[in-house]
Design a protein that fits this description.
Layout lengths: L3 E6 L2 E9 L5 E3 L4 H5 L19 E4 L4 E4 L2 E2 H7 L2 H10 L5 H12 L6 H6 L9 H15 L10 H27 L12 H10 L10 H13 L7 H10 L5 H13 L6 H15 L4 H9 L18 H17 L4 H14 L2 H5 L7 H11 L6 H22 L27
Antiparallel strand pairs: 1-2, 2-3, 4-5, 5-6
Helix pairs in contact: 2-9, 3-9, 3-18, 6-7, 6-11, 7-8, 7-18, 9-14, 9-18, 10-11, 10-18, 11-18, 12-15, 12-17, 13-15, 14-17
This protein binds carboxymethyl coenzyme *A.
Length: 428
């Protein structure tokens, strides 16, 4: 096949190169389009727009494939720890034992946050959402490391910022939960690994010895791995575009948290659980009625649909099985799981969803697990952010290493054409 695409416009013909990635997906490179033709492309929601060439994550929405650096998500979720996956996503290869030990040690050495950062929590009103707090905390971190504001620092210094951010994230997330409950915060303990430390700081208690439950540690590792990266989604694209102005890493990641918060993106995991509770409390579990309301456009089915997956979301498949196993192992019998399964079946058998290729996504079952593990609903999207952090950082790092231009889309202007200024006395 030709590696050129031809565009005919007016009486002229233009040729544009076609680039092809390692998995054979191709793109028309239109860098010179406007200069040559005077045209720009128009693609609301970037449904057909590639913004970078990335070597981090591959996904095939038709076949339901997701791979980080070439490794299938099913294998990673079944065999690796979250820290191994963080290393893989960030540095491109699975770590050797020595590399993993060194990486874990680096992370352990940076888990504490400045005491003044802890004081920031005092300004939040009691009902402030954990995601708002997370954004604030992450952007506030930049104040404690002003050297990270310099976009021209050496790669080792950038790596230190990366390690700091990864190491402090569980501490901050756990503090958000503790502060939300009005409980004293717990400081990190170097004897624990990354995930266990997070669980200790979140569920431990100053007055008692913490005993980690291997079922919970394993579940948490799996969930975080499944969220670790997802190529150019709304939040990753945000992180890249903010970083493309050479904004510092903390600010770029805080922007990613903001994008994730929305209910059409990561905020859906909170919304799913609230929807299931609503069905339990106000619909007497009648899922058919809810499906009808969705078809009548009275509500969205949260946790359903995906911009890229049009067959199934491989993460959702893994999470559904994990959900059954984890609840059984923990001895939790949650009626919301039954409602979720019935709702899924009702939707999958309905032409409205079949025709639109709407399937459960990663958020559909994850909340039921988070709830069983003991997280309050408002913390769910924070957990998504904790998992996604290595992905965002890798996207930011790749964008900077590729020396990408500042992100600056164009538009088709549809406002008024030029008109004379009207003095205030003459306005109607
Ligand atoms: N419930 C009801 N109808 C839906 C849903 C839904 N969850 N999702 C899409 N549709 C309909 C939509 O109304 C449209 O119908 P029509 O063609 O008749 O106008 C059709 O399906 C195609 O939808 P779309 O808006 O073109 O799909 P999209 O690819 O732009 O949006 C989405 C993807 C995830 C934003 C959307 O499916 C959605 O809002 N889902 C609910 C929120 C959710 O679960 N988000 C989590 C996404 S996965 C985790 C993550 O990465 O953030």
């Amino acid at each position: 096949m030709s590696n050129k695409a031809t565009l005919q416009y007016g009486d002229k013909t233009y040729e544009f190169p076609v680039i092809t990635g390692t998995e054979n997906e191709s793109a028309i490179e239109i860098g010179k389009l406007r200069a040559q033709t005077g045209l720009i492309t128009y693609d609301e929601g970037y449904k057909n727009t590639g913004v970078t060439q990335s070597a981090i994550t591959f996904l095939d929405g038709e076949l339901g494939i997701l791979r980080y650096r070439g490794y299938n998500i099913e294998e990673l979720a079944g065999k690796a720890s979250f820290v191994e996956v963080m290393y893989l996503v960030l540095y491109g290869e699975l770590p050797t034992k020595a590399q993993l030990a060194a990486f874990e040690n680096e992370l352990t050495m940076h888990t504490l946050v400045h005491e003044n950062l802890v004081k920031v929590f005092e300004v939040f009103p009691s009902r402030s959402h954990p995601m708002g707090q997370l954004m604030t905390m992450l952007s506030t971190l930049s104040s404690f490391y002003p050297e990270s504001l310099n976009p021209n620092i050496k790669p080792e210094e950038t790596n230190l910022t990366i390690i700091r951010l990864l190491a402090k994230m569980p501490t901050i997330c756990a503090m958000i939960q503790k502060k939300g409950k009005g409980h004293p915060i717990l400081y990190p303990q170097n004897k624990y690994d990354y995930v266990t430390n997070f669980l200790y700081m979140t569920f431990g208690n100053v007055s008692e010895e913490y005993v980690a439950d291997p079922v919970i540690v394993d579940a948490m590792n799996k969930l975080l791995i499944l969220h670790a990266d997802h190529e150019q989604n709304c939040s990753a694209a945000t992180v890249r575009i903010v970083g493309s102005s050479h904004a510092n890493l903390y600010a770029s990641i805080a922007a990613g948290v903001a994008a994730l918060w929305g209910p059409r993106h990561g905020g859906a995991n909170q919304e799913v659980l609230e929807m299931l509770e609503d069905i339990r409390d106000n619909y007497n579990g009648d899922v058919e009625k809810v499906v009808q309301e969705v078809k009548d456009r009275k509500r969205m089915l949260m946790g359903f649909g995906h911009r890229v997956y049009k067959n199934f979301d491989p993460r959702a498949k893994i999470i559904k099985v994990a959900c059954d196993n984890i609840l059984a192992k923990l001895g939790v019998n949650d009626p919301l799981l039954d409602i979720a399964k019935k709702l899924e079946q009702a939707a999958l058998n309905d032409p409205f969803f079949v025709e639109r290729k709407l399937y459960p996504n990663v958020d559909f079952y994850s909340g039921i697990i988070y709830k069983a593990l003991g997280f309050p609903t408002q913390m769910f999207t924070v957990l998504f952010a904790l998992g996604r952090l290595p992905g965002w950082i890798s996207q930011w790092k790749e964008m900077r290493e590729r020396k990408e231009d500042i992100g600056r889309p164009r538009q088709v202007y549809t406002g008024p054409t030029e008109r004379p200024f009207v003095n205030i006395e003459d306005r109607k």
